[in-house]
Amino acid sequence: MNNKTSQERSGFLFNVDILIEGSTNAQALQSLLELLNNSDKVVDQRINSGIELGKVIEAALVNLKTNYVEKSKAGLSSGHSFQAKAAAAKKAPQAAPKPNSYLTPEDIRDSISKNRLVRLTVNKPGGTRLSIPCRIINFDEAAQILSVYHVDEKQVYSFSLNEIDELSGQ
Predict the structure, then answer these.
(1) pLDDT: is 102 or 132 the higher one?
(2) CA 66 and chain centroid, separation
(3) pLDDT in tens, 132-145
(4) In whole angstroms, what is the distance from residue 61 CA to residue 67 CA?
(5) Structurally, what CATH architecture does the domain formed by 105-168 represent?
(6) Which residue intervals make up region (Disordered) (predicted)?
């Protein structure tokens, strides 16, 4: 027989959503951490979502990248004559609308937070095309790297954004 004494302690894992009041996300997070850290019953914790820190840094990086692209385009076009620009404008087709498969960084972060199943079409070197049912687990915007969990193979893969032809299924 298995008799447990009242002195034995066990750990139990709970998955909860907690609403904390605060004027900012950082202050609410600080209140939550203080609440958890001040309890002698909480052995360990992991916050899976709700942290919105670093948004200013992300916005600054996107702005910096946009400014760099605009300056590069301006530098390239300054070498052309006015007539060449006018002729190119007449011949250039109208800008195509964004395809449904195009995802903005916000869409990628939304897919990560909602743990959505997506299909990734990847063009590997040598002309190999892969179609992967996966969940996006990380997006490194600065390095332009997308890490995904292949749901069939149960493995994690990382792809450069320039390898990805299509991402669908949101």
Answers:
(1) 132
(2) 18
(3) 999 999 988 888 88
(4) 10
(5) Roll (2.30)
(6) 87-106
E strands, 7-144, where?
Answer: 117-123, 129-140
Look at residue 134 in the predicted model and tell me its pLDDT. Answer: 92
Q: How many angstroms separate the CA atoms of 81 and 71, rounded?
A: 18
pLDDT of residue 133: 92
Residue 132 to residues 24, 64, 124, 143, 161, Cα–Cα distance (Å): 38, 32, 12, 21, 15
Instruction: At 166, list the tokens.
Output: 């299509």
In SS3 terms, 45-70 reads as: CCCCCCCCCCHHHHHHHHHHHHHHHH
Asked if 52 and 25 touch (Cβ cutoff 8 Å), the reply is: yes
Domain with CATH 2.30.30.100 in the chain: 105-168
